Amino acid sequence: MTAPNPDWADLAEQRVLDEALTRAADLGWGARLVEAAAKAAGLSPGEAQLLLPAGARDLAALLSRRHDAAALASLAATDPSSLKVRQRISAGVGARIEAAMADAPAVTRWAGYLALPPNAPLALRLTWESADHLWRWAGDTATDENHYSKRAILSGILISTLAIRLASGAEAADAHLAARIDNVMAFEKWKAGRKPIVAFADVAAALGRMRYGDR
Asked: Domain locations in the chain?
């Protein structure tokens, strides 16, 4: 028995996203991009509205989830149980950042769009999803408050590391990641009675760089 093909919506979404990635650097991330990408993908305005009712926000979510899937695929050959916690987080974040950088010109526009205040809830939700995927790959099975604390810390690391990679390059991002992994390790210490220090200031600064660039 052959496996069923993905349905029309899944295939159409990916076609629109492919077209958007080739146009985002010029058009920015917004309604114009959605319209142009949908048209190039062969969709009518009505089909585009049905497929992406929230427009650019839906498109932004598609890109984030594509990068999550790519990161997990690249990590599939790595046995996390053979790594220390610090190494697992470094590998996971590194894979997620590299997945995003494969579409760097579009991701710059995508990140700037998500940094706009009206889009902050979506940005946080998508980053939380990414952090959850990485923790699950790393073997985390916590279901109590530890589940949420770990993902909050890793979300901050993901946002700030991507912002620095886009603004300052791989070397600066790698140095930042190595330093910020201390936040994850601080959480492990907190379980023994010490409170972690989450780099919220780094997150705010990262969002500012995504929106305005280095000024």
From this structure: 62-212
Instruction: Please tell me the distance from the alpha carbon of residue 46 to that of residue 54, in angstroms, as a whole number.
Output: 13
Query: How far is residue 142 from each of residues 3, 101, 145, measured CA to CA in Å?
Result: 34, 30, 8
CB contact at 8 A, 110 and 63:
yes
Residues whose CB is less than 8 angstroms from the CB of residue 82 and which lie 6 or more positions away in sequence, other chains included = none
Mean predicted confidence (pLDDT) in 139-146: 84
Would you say 181 and 157 are in contact if contact means Cβ atoms under 8 Å apart? yes
Stated pTM of the model: 0.85
The CA angle 159-161-163, to the nearest 5 degrees, is 70
3-state class (DSSP) for residue 141: coil
- Measured in degrees and rounded to the nearest 5, phi and psi for residue 213 equal 80, -175
Q: How far apart are CA 41 and CA 43, in angstroms?
A: 6
Cα 55 from Cα 67, distance rounded (Å): 19
Phi, psi of 151 (to 5 degrees): -75, -35
For 87-106, write each residue's pLDDT tens digit. Answer: 999 999 999 999 999 999 99
